[in-house]
Design brief:
With about 210 residues, the chain is of the alpha+beta class. The chain has 5 helices and 8 strands, in the order αααβαβββββββα.
Length: about 210
């Protein structure tokens, strides 16, 4: 009886060893993340050639579209009010400083466009210098004049290991001009200035106490 159990046990072990074992599914090898190739900048000479072809005749084609900037952003830095330009013919100031609406230039920088550096005009005065001694007249408002122009805009696309540029059209301020101010605003500004002048004259003419 005992020998029969032993034989049955041995037979079961033998059958288990002979039966094909289930293989575990092979694990897929870990894939390394694909390396993103860095995109390089295009040569300056190539951008200059492409920009030159686009910008040819651009200013002459759009000169009739010059228009003042809408009300909003205004600059009032270093306004030369009261400083009449020198009459010496040997010393001739540039047009932007001899204008009734004087302006200056600053450089706008944008690394994603070509050209990266563009000069932009901004007005120095809020009003216009229209008096004999270049007093600031607030019945007129200095406002920038904008000019449309073309640039090359860098995109996120990459071709041949270089960034792709597309043409884009922007407007840049090229100078300033005088436009009539609204009557209510001009009167309120001039009346406040007149009040300050009256106070100043009154304080100067007031007799000093001994």
């Amino acid at each position: 009886m005992q020998r029969g159990r032993v034989r049955a046990l041995l037979l079961a072990l033998l059958c288990g060893a002979l039966l094909p074992q289930r293989n575990e599914p092979a694990r897929a090898p870990k894939q390394r993340p694909a390396r993103t190739r860095s995109c390089g900048e295009r040569p300056e000479e190539l951008l200059e050639q492409l920009y030159g072809r686009l910008a040819a005749g651009m200013l002459s084609a759009f000169h009739h579209t010059l228009q003042p900037e809408p009300q909003g952003r205004q600059h009032n830095a270093s306004c030369p009010a009261g400083a009449r330009p020198v009459a010496d013919k040997r010393v001739r100031l540039p047009v932007n400083l001899r204008s009734a609406s004087p302006w200056a230039y600053r450089i706008s920088y944008d690394p994603t466009r070509y050209p990266k550096y563009i000069p932009e005009a901004y007005c120095l005065c809020k009003g216009c210098l229209m008096g004999i001694f270049w007093e600031e007249n607030f019945r007129f408002r200095s406002t920038p004049v904008y000019m449309p122009t073309v640039i090359l805009r860098r995109t996120s696309s990459c071709a041949g290991g270089r960034y792709v540029y597309v043409e884009d059209y922007i407007t840049i301020p090229v100078g300033c001009t005088c436009v009539p101010e609204q009557e209510k605003e001009a009167e309120s500004v001039n009346s406040s200035i007149d009040k300050q002048e009256v106070k100043l004259l009154g304080s100067q003419n007031k007799p000093s106490s001994e």
